[in-house]
Amino acid sequence: MRQYHALAAAMMLAVMGIVSMASAESVNVYNQHLKLTIDPAAASFTLHRADGGAESVTLSRWTDQPVTLDLAAVNDPRFGKGQQATMKAADGSELRLTLFEKLPFAMVQDVIVNTTDSDQTIRQRVFAQLDCKGAAPVNKLRAFGTFAARAIESENNPGSYNHLALVEPMSRRGLVAVWLTHERGSGVMFYDGVDDQTVRLTARQDYGRLRLKPKQHEPSEKLLLGFFDDCRLGLEQYADAAAEYYGIDLPPQPTVYCTWYHAGSSNEKKLRAQTDFAAEHLKPFGFDVLQIDDGWQDGVKSNGPAKVFVRHRPGGAYPDGVKPIADYIKAKGMTPGLWYMPYAGTHDDPYFADKQEMFYHVDGKPLDVSWGGTCLDPSVPATQELIRQRTEMICGKWGYKYIKTDGLWMGLGTPHVYVNTTFKDDKIGDAPPADIDYTNVQAERTGLKIVRDTAGPDVFILGCNLAQNMRTLGLSIGFVDAMRIGPDNGPKWERMRSGTFSGSNLYFLHRRVWYNDPDPVYVRPQVPIEQARALVSWVALTGQLHASSYSFADLSAERLDILRRAMPAHTLMPRPVDLFEQGIPRMWLLTDDRRSEPLYVVGLFNWDEKSPVDLTLDTQHIGLPTADAYVGFDYWANAFVSLKAGQSLNVPPASCRIIALKPVSDHPQLISTSRHITQGVVDVKSDAWHAGKRMLHGESEVVGDDPYELRIARPAGGDWAIDRVEADGATIKVVGEEPAGWRVQLETKENQTVKWRVSFK
Fold it and tell me: Residue 455: which of 382, 407, 404, 394 has the closest Cα?
């Protein structure tokens, strides 16, 4: 066996460029993460961990044709230098296997060829069947995909879109397979247990209709394969790679009000009042978007919403159009938002009478689908112009800088498969694009690009939603700033938690490729206060998009304050602890290591509406530093707590506990603040202990007329007392002393950054 170690291979390839081999010998290619063994005689490859672990992925035979093998040095501007092994068959088809220095995955791509003298049409094709051996027997593994984590059966397992991990749930060790691209084909994954040690993973590409001209070469989408000690990190590194690949640079994350879940499209009078209230009572805390939903637009309302999005409904909720209210919201220093459906029409609406060629067609008739109406075909130039016209009207002439683009899947020309988490056969391609050189996936992406380019970089685009057709997950990356990742929720507990399922199981996409939108939180009077706190706390801790939908003026002071304590979103990357163990994870860890002493915020959630749950503080599994004891603050209990590893913590039904903690220290520590549910992550810019001066000092962002409390933990030993407290530009006083610590309050008249000092005797 010929060994090509990374350094030697890189040196040789730099000199020789491409090395062609027709021998029957196997070749090994390495990077720091992976070892790739290619056997040209068998037209096969096997992927191993570079550290010699037992896991492997094998493609037993790529083709029955004889192949040659080329080795080449490559350099990608995103992933750095690498080594590419290409197996080439006699008919011109290729299989490319690449290891990059900066990518912990192997990248796999093939090239197919139409060897005939006539056009070929491909609806779907199996890209590869891979035999995967894990670090544990199959009955100890779980498959993790868009459906969350499931046991692996011998057959009839559900398919997943975009990604699939095969993982041992407690150690989190396993394989991550994911489609990096969805340019012309939609990548899906299927799996079955073959024997006690092997899972067969089938990676497939669904095009709808892919036309291959005679002798045409067609490269596939790019598949990533990698082994990880913690598959959460593998999923996160995939999302980082996707962001790098598509050049994603997200705008600031907004905090949003949506009219839909309590007022439909609302009306001009009510929305002006909501704007006035928000400007006075919520904007200082970070609130900034008011979005009008379905009902403002003109058109015939049948099979879902009306769909004339270039004009308002005469005599409707906004009789003077939607531009005046947009101007009013902007005048108050906030951002106006508007809902529409870029890729939908109503074929029997008189407005569309002369636009029939813009639709997808089946058997000569426009494709009508449930709720969405008639699917527009973005391969048609006239349709492209209509999509552009709609977006320009809303974002340009009317001035909306936040758009919610619903019916996102309709540019694919497929039925509505809502609610969609496991693979569903949507018959993609039954309605082909009018331009036969487009695949259905390519047509959809064309529509997405038109909206993105027309709206411009200063418009925030929310896609809505993945549950309508999960294919939109991969193909929307790079075109939207946020994505509704689940179905519509509602004020009953079962529906309130639907967004937490989707937001947890797609957590790794958030703040990397887009902001996850789990749909609004609910603090309205009929929702039990513990349930309201639980959902808002989950949004605050995970940092996902915070939206609400209720008349702010009709909320009690207590319930309005729950919303404030989740504004704005933090900018860190928390993780679910039990992602591969629970359908909806019950534990999250948010680590703020930007300070001299890191702060750890642990979220404990009970999604069961009837029974309490005891959750164990398994510090190693959670990811906390090893310590004899911890001091913490339970936010909603408003109390200091003492904790030890292995301690059991009770969480009542449909509720949560948010505990900020640090290991016990020999000096006073800032452990929590009152400003935000994350207890200092959003507001504390710095804090440190000065041993020589026996002084705790820091800098905080304080909201005007909002009493701001520092919660300071008492050290384990010694006789400690506060000597004096000082603050620049704010009033400051000690408001409480307890055996576990002290409470110090700051107040300002306006929003400002305050430097504070607490000195001890």
Answer: 394
- Could you tell me if residue 295 is left (phi over 0), alpha (psi between -120 and 50 degrees) or otherwise beta? left
* Cβ atoms within 10 Å, residue 263: 19
Q: Distances in Å between the alpha carbon of 547 and those of 117, 147, 407, 506, 561?
A: 56, 24, 19, 18, 15
Q: Distance of CA 264 to CAs 259, 270, 292, 294, 484, Å?
A: 6, 12, 8, 6, 18
Same domain for 533 and 615: no
- Tokens representing residue 407 in the block: 């019916």
Assign 717 a pLDDT band (cuts: 50, 70, 90). confident
Looking at the predicted structure, is the pLDDT value of residue 4 above 70? Answer: no
Structure tokens at 241: 């790679």
Q: What are 637-678's pLDDT values in tens digits?
A: 999 999 999 999 999 999 999 999 999 999 999 999 999 999
Asked if residue 355 belongs to a domain, the reply is yes
Place of tokens 């509704």: 484
- ∠ CA 365-371-372, nearest 5°, is 60
Residues 112 and 228 in one domain: yes
Q: CA nearest 382: which of 347, 341, 354, 405?
A: 354
Q: Please tell me the total count of domains within the chain.
A: 3
Distance CA 104, CA 224 (A): 9
Q: Using an 8 Å Cβ cutoff, are 47 and 60 in contact?
A: no
> Do both 273 and 203 map to the same domain?
no
Let me know whether 345 and 270 are in one domain. yes
Q: Which domain holds residue 44?
A: 2-245
CB atoms within 10 A of CB 53: 14
Distance CA 485, CA 473 (A): 8
What value, to the nearest 5°, has the Cα angle with vertex 694 and ends 691 and 699?
A: 90
- Considering 245, 267, 297, which residue would you say is the last residue of a domain? 245
> In which band, very low, low, confident or very high, does the pLDDT at 25 lie, cut at 50, 70 and 90?
confident
Q: Which residue's entry shows tokens 């009970």?
A: 606
Cβ 187 vs Cβ 203: under 8 Å: yes
Q: Are residues 57 and 75 in the same domain?
A: yes
**Phi/psi of residue 362, nearest 5 degrees:** -130, 125
| 282 residue type, one letter | L
What is the spatial distance between Cα 516 and Cα 503, in angstroms, rounded to a whole number?
6
What string of H, E and C letters represents the secondary structure of 335-358? EEEEEECCCEECCCCHHHCCCHHH
Q: How many CB atoms lie within 10 A of CB 279?
A: 17
pLDDT tens digits, 656-666: 999 999 999 99
Residues 274, 239, single domain; the answer is no
SS3 sequence of 536-595: HHHHHHHCCCEEECCCHHHCCHHHHHHHHCCCCCCCCCCEECCCCCCCCCCEEEEEECCC
The predicted-structure confidence for 497-543, as pLDDT tens digits, reads as follows: 999 999 999 999 999 999 999 999 999 999 999 999 999 999 999 99
Please check the confidence at residue 9 and state whether its pLDDT lies above 80.
no
The neighbouring-strand residues paired with 603 are 588, 658
Pair 223, 317 in one domain: no
Percent of the chain with pLDDT over 90: 96
Q: Name the residue among 116, 120, 115, 96 with its Cα closest to residue 106.
A: 96
Burial 620-654 (b: 16+ CB within 10 A, else e): ebbebeebeebbbbbbbeeebbebebeeebebebb
CA torsion, ordered 657, 662, 668, 674, to nearest 10 deg: -30
pLDDT of residue 718: 85
Type of residue found at 30: Y
Give the strand pairing for 163-167 and 174-179: antiparallel
At 24, the pLDDT band (50, 70, 90 cuts) reads low
